[in-house]
Design a protein that fits this description.
By secondary structure, this protein is α+β, with helices and mostly antiparallel strands. It has two domains: about 5-155, Ribosomal Protein S5, domain 2 (2-Layer Sandwich); about 165-285, Alpha-Beta Plaits. The protein has helices at about 65-80, 100-115, 120-130, 135-140, 180-185, 195-205, 210-215, 220-225, 230-240, 260-275, and strands at about 5-20, 30-50, 50-55, 85-90, 145-150, 155, 165-170, 215-220, 245-250, 255-260, 280, 285. The radius of gyration is 19 Å and the shape is globular.
Length: about 290
């Protein structure tokens, strides 16, 4: 086998709870419910005879590209021969709270595992992912998961989401980074709505979309909305356009909404695109 191709799915946090305490590496402890969604990048990994990692993704500086770091980590850890060319077709908006870079990195870890027949277990790959970023840990597994610890404990939930109609809208503005988003959090605003996570799990188990939409929660919202009111206004606008619920995606600045009917989502998407937002319709993806 000389090459592999992988779809790198975006992720959304249906319940994002950050505890006002830190753990290993001074990272916040968290409790998330995450799901992969159909919006995705395409990652092609090709063996080369020449040593070194070449990455074709012009949107991101090579030195900062987490997918390249993932490949270097695999080569260093397992002393792999030759080199690689990695080509990423980007569809997931960058620095938008959708895990695009993390998903690309996870696709590289999983792809190299297959390309070199390393037969690494999921737990081994999650361990490697934890050296790259906590969202990479979830993206290695994908599907519907409970995330705990500092983001490195990933548990697949034993049921599936109902067929959610999701609309993701992204403003033109970009936040500095995810680490910046964590730096502006206020401790007294964190970790107060664990009840919503438990109710969300029950709604998912029952396949109750209207109730599920009422349990969406994100501890980043208050801080991010203070610095980027465009995301707060976008959340309100999506509700005005008929969404059952809308919430900040990850650390932003994208917002995602749940719609009851596909035709209502399509109308809202067209209107938000006229207003200057980048929009994607999506559905959940099983692992």
């Amino acid at each position: 086998m000389m090459h592999v191709e992988r779809m790198a799915f975006a992720k959304i946090n249906l319940s994002l709870n950050i505890l006002p305490e830190t753990g290993e590496r001074d990272y916040y402890r968290v409790r998330f419910i995450n799901t992969s969604i159909t919006l995705h990048d395409r990652v092609r990994i090709e063996k080369t005879e020449n040593e070194g990692i070449t990455i074709n993704e012009p949107a991101i500086d090579e030195r900062e590209n987490i997918a390249r770091h993932a490949a270097l980590l695999m080569f260093k850890t397992y002393r792999l021969p030759g080199g690689l060319t990695i080509t990423i077709e980007k569809n997931i908006p960058t620095r938008a709270g959708l895990g695009g870079g993390s998903s690309d990195a996870a696709a590289v870890l999983n792809g190299i595992n297959d390309l070199y027949a390393l037969a690494l277990s999921t737990e081994e790959r999650v361990g490697l992912a934890s050296k790259l970023g906590m969202d990479v840990c979830f993206c290695v597994k994908g599907g519907l998961c409970l995330i705990e610890g500092i983001g490195d404990v990933v548990k697949t939930l034993p049921f599936t989401l109902p067929p959610l109609e999701l609309l993701i809208a992204t403003p033109k503005e970009k936040k500095p980074s995810t680490s910046w988003a964590y730096s502006v959090l206020e401790w007294d605003e964190l970790g107060k709505r664990h009840d919503l996570l438990e109710a969300l799990v029950e709604s998912i188990r029952n396949g109750d979309i209207p109730m599920l939409s009422k349990q969406l929660h994100n501890d980043f919202e208050e801080a991010i909305f203070r610095y980027y009111p465009v995301s707060h206004a976008l959340k309100r606008r999506m509700k005005e356009l008929g969404a059952l619920s809308a919430i900040l995606a990850g650390s932003g600045l994208s917002v995602f909404a749940v719609f009851e009917k596909r035709h209502a989502l399509i109308r809202a998407k067209a209107q938000l695109e006229r207003e200057g937002f980048t929009c994607h319709a999506a559905n959940p993806v099983e692992a």
